[in-house]
Amino acid sequence: MSALTLHDPMEQVLEIQxxxxxxxxxxxxxxxxxxxxxxxxxxxxxxxxxxxxxxxxCVTGTITPDGGVIRLRDKEYLSLSPRRSMAEGVSAVYQDxxxxxxxxxxxxxxxxxxxxxxxxxxxxxxxxxxxxxRLKELGIELPSTRARIADLSGGQRQAVAIARxxxxxxxxxxxxxxxxxxxxxxxxxxxxxxxxxxIRGLRERKMAVLFVSHNLPxxxxxxxxxxxxxxxxxxxxxxxxxxxxxxxxxMMSGSQPVNGENTEGTGDE
Amino acid sequence: MNRFPQPFWVxxxxxxLSLFFSWLSPHFLTGENFVTILDQSSINIVVAVGMTLVxxxxxxxxxVGATVAVCGIVMxxxxxAGFGVLPxxxxxxxxxxxxxxxxxxxxxxxxxxxxxxxxxxxSVVGGGALIVTQGIPIYGFSADFSWIGRGRIGGLPVSSxxxxxxxxxxxxxxxxxxLGIYAAAMGGNEEALRRNGVSTCLYKTVLYVLxxxxxxxxxxxxxxxxxxxxxxxxxxxxxNAIATAVLGGTRIRGGEPRIAGTFFAGILMGVVKNxxxxxxISSYYQQFVTGVIILAAIVVSDRSxxxxxxxxxxxxxx
Amino acid sequence: xxxxxGGVFLALVFLLSVWGSAFGEMNPMVAESIATIESQxxxxxxxxxxxxxxxxxxxxSNPYWTEMKKxxxxxxxxxxxxxxxxxxxxEGDLKSQLETLETMVVKGYDAIxxxxxxxxxxxxxxxxxxxxxIPVICSGPAIDAKALKDAGGRLDGxxxxxxxxxxxxAAEDMVKKMGAEGGKVAIIEGIPGAGQSEAxxxxxxxxxxxxxxxxxxxxxxxxxxxxxxxxITTNLVKAVPDLRGIYCANDVMALAAADALETSGKREGxxxxxxDFIPEARTAIREGKLQGSTTFSQAAWTRGAIVFALxxxxxTTDLPERLAIPIMLATAGNxxxxxxxx
Lengths: 269, 318, 342
What we know:
The complex is a heterotrimer of chains A (269), B (318) and C (342). With 269 residues, chain A is α/β, with parallel strands linked by helices. Helices cover 30% and strands 26% of the residues of chain A.
């Protein structure tokens, strides 16, 4: 039995209410609200400067919001620290991937949490064995757990980074919240497909996935819900099926006011 | 894997050069000579082991030469004041550790670039040594002390046995403990390590302290061998150690620490020095030949690195 | 030091025969030095028998030593021996000089001549040579006898110039030239604590002390450095305007002192002596810029060293423990005799 346990579907794991953040006189987030459930893929879209990364950093605890509430499962926070956020099962993969090129896959997966024997010796055998299992669970195929990160393709590296995030986010009694920042950036079609496949796999494992992307066609293919951000405001948040690509583009660029439903997914008051 | 790791090339070069030198001089291929090479390479290899760990973390320690000198002066003063051999050695190791700690403070707490920080320490510590001794060496101390640098156990010089112990310890730390992994991680992507909740401050400090202790151990061997301590004792020790570490396959911009490579590289450099003297070739060629070997090593390893990665970037899942 | 009339006679005979050979133009001062040296050694072997001698000097990036190397090589071809001169890559690197010696021992020379950087650094190497039965001669600065004995080693011979004499001869000439009225003098030494420097200082100092009408007003360390000696002299002549003589432990400093006095307009009436007899000093003595320089003949030294080594390699007993190289004083008066001096 793996360490990832399955949960009741549609349990709300993350809720943000009226989150605001100013940098000096610039209002980067102006009262954002959204919610996320386990087993759900939520895509956060918006043009550059819309406030997406600031929002992500508030959730991972890197930035302290000026106002609003972040609810993680049954706990409410006015602000988070990276440690607290990680303890609550939130883990993120940023565009820099935070992998060590020179070290191999297994070492990267267990960086900071290496299995030990005799108290202080690194148990490499166990590390590689467990790494192999984890990758298999997530449906990731790599040449070997002993492959150096530097020798892997972009898509393979992304997979390793996501696997590590999953390992960090998962706990005994919960499925984790995985945040992905531009997971298919600068990737060709084939590689993107495989990354998207992994993300779908996360949903099947009842993890909650929040990802940011500029690639709208891909968003429309895998996201369950989409939230559109512009200039620090949440313009629209709802089911993917309820909106069209053109509408989203229009909202992102602000060329037209929104037509259609606008209320689903802003969370219970 | 197609790519040959650097230690392989070092080994090949060592064999090739050995054949060359044995052709030039009949005295090269003798047991006596091999023991001489081992003995003479010990001091450099000991320093280089500590340096390897620091370089792996994308750091550097230019102050090891000054540390060697200061530890020598500390030991000489204690021995002449009547202290026994063991307390004296302990004092030297403590001195090395303290100097390493100072380096760590500069690099970790004050976030000074390691090159600048240890360069400054080199001047301060080295200058301090000159002031304390007024440039005059301290001479002539006990015979038990010089056993470390000159004695033999079972036909092998004590110095090379000590050197082997240091290499073994360094290799163990690098391969079997988290220190090795974290050193390489700090060299590759320190941010990644930090994000995984590892205290890079702590581990970096440990690395610099270990480097200082290695320099102190080298100083023990050197001081006891020469039976004198002088402020210029460690001149060029840092350059030789860096060259040895890099030649051994540890990348200067950080990465996996290759302790075994450091050992073989140190032997190679010892072979070069020894062979040139046996062949009667001017000592100026020592620096030149060593430099050429290091240059070749860097170029070869860089190129095999790049071509290897490109070959292997295959597609997903095959 | 043993002398034998027979030895002197044989040496002179040998010299006469050598005179007729390629070294026919040998400088008489050099010849005189050689005679003095060889009189200490007994019968000189006529042929080296192709023996191999290793020589370890301090450095080969210094004209003093490169000249020494040339002299060794000249004698080597003349005497049918093979001499190999090696040095450590850097001056002052004690360890690498030791390593070079250790490696030389592996080569199995018939004898080894070493010039140690300090009294202790070569002791382990000497032990190795002892172990292989290779005779070791120390040339120049001494190896510490007690430390060597404690380590269980043995030196088979020592060649040195009496550095004391280098200071002594210069001082004696200076005192003589100062005449009855005497006066104030100063000494600019080399590196305090270093063998040659201390010896030269003492040699000159003793002479000055015993001369009743001479007063030593200052002893300063010039550290063999031209700039430093220049500055010291400038300050000296300001503090002591009636200074009459300066002995400097080497020519480089003596020439700097002369320059300093010249610049201060005080060169007149001051006697300056140096040591080493470098080419610049030779010209300076001829021109009167310097009053004298003490030195020994490198040709004589190297020849003495080779002969000493050959005798040891041939297991001759009855050799002196120390071979003394005579010091000569070059002044304006005898500078002519120094043409062709090596």
